[in-house]
């Protein structure tokens, strides 16, 4: 069972538009509405793959109630922690050439009591979890050390801890030794405070995060594939994505694929790469099912091409 924690969930509305013309009336050609937030997306991908998942998240107001309903409709067991603020609503505008414009709301401000209730809910539901995935930005009211507290508490129950966040929250949590961290290239670059132009640069940055406490680093490199670095070595995974329809949630699908395949080694990297490649071919933040995956198209190698230059989209 994979338990996910999403401190700043959302109600995501995606509109497919023929073009985005500022100041004009734009008529959508397609639309969808999904429960959102990085941890929520991981749960959705895990459920789509046929595995059990539990999603712990703060929810407030009518948007929060709708998120809970949407999760239930996808067969996901939700553990809502009531908050006084309204769950945020996000909008994504997808153009035919793959260009995606996103408008993300800030979300509610979480009180001290609500923050503690969220930690308590994770503790209550973590028994029997193989992995606890802590994902996404922190809402207002939660300081950068909140994930560090969560990782410390989660380790106490013996589950593996996967962390997908960025900035000060990522750096603070590294001190508690999360088993897996999953930055994208932009987040990896920000964490080491330098540009990463090649795959070798990304490899060095991943090793630096390991030196700060991460057990392994699963780096999403967009069109340039994925990189896994752990105590036993490094592996590089690629798969042709084809036409990109939407990259919303592609990194979350990758993390789900990694965890359901055991969360370690080249087999898990292959699953992660297949899930990420499948996700970008789907509309909005739709998560891939087994029928969407093309495992035969995935290549994983320990011979990392360190001179390869990076520059693809960043899921």
TrEMBL record:
Protein keywords: ATP-binding, Kinase, Nucleotide-binding, Transferase
Membrane-spanning intervals of the chain: none
GO biological process, one term: carbohydrate catabolic process
GO molecular function, one term: 1-phosphofructokinase activity
InterPro entries in alphabetical order: 1-PFruKinase, PfkB_dom, Ribokinase-like, Tagatose/fructose_Pkinase
Domain of life per record: Bacteria
Record bears the keyword Kinase: yes
Protein name: 1-phosphofructokinase
Taxonomic source organism: Streptomyces sulfonofaciens
């Amino acid at each position: 069972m994979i338990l996910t924690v999403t401190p700043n969930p959302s109600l995501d509305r995606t509109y497919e538009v023929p073009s985005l013309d500022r100041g004009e009336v734009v008529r959508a050609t397609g639309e969808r509405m999904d429960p959102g937030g990085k941890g929520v997306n991981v749960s959705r991908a895990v459920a789509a793959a046929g595995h059990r998942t539990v999603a712990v998240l703060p929810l407030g107001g009518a948007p929060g109630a709708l998120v809970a309903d949407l999760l239930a409709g996808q067969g996901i067991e939700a553990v809502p922690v009531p908050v006084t603020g309204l769950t945020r609503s996000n909008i994504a505008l997808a153009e035919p050439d793959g260009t995606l414009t996103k408008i993300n709301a800030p979300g509610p401000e979480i009180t001290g009591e609500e923050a503690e209730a969220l930690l308590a809910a994770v503790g209550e539901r973590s028994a029997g979890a193989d992995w606890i995935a802590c994902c996404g930005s922190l809402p207002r009211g939660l300081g950068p050390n909140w994930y560090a507290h969560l990782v410390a508490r989660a380790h106490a129950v013996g589950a593996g801890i996967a962390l997908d966040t960025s900035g000060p929250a990522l750096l603070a949590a590294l001190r508690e030794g999360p088993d897996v961290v999953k930055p994208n290239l932009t987040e990896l670059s920000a964490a080491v405070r330098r540009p990463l132009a090649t795959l070798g640069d990304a490899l060095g940055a991943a090793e630096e995060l390991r030196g700060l406490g991460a057990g392994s680093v699963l780096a999403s490199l967009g069109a340039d594939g994925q990189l896994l670095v752990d105590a036993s070595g490094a592996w590089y995974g690629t798969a042709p994505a084809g036409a990109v329809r939407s990259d919303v949630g592609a990194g979350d699908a990758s993390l789900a694929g990694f965890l359901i395949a055991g969360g370690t080694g080249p087999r898990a990297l292959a699953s992660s790469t297949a899930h990420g490649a499948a996700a970008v071919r789907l509309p909005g933040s739709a998560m891939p099912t087994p029928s969407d995956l093309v495992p035969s198209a995935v290549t994983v190698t320990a011979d990392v091409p360190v001179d390869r230059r990076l520059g693809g989209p960043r899921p």
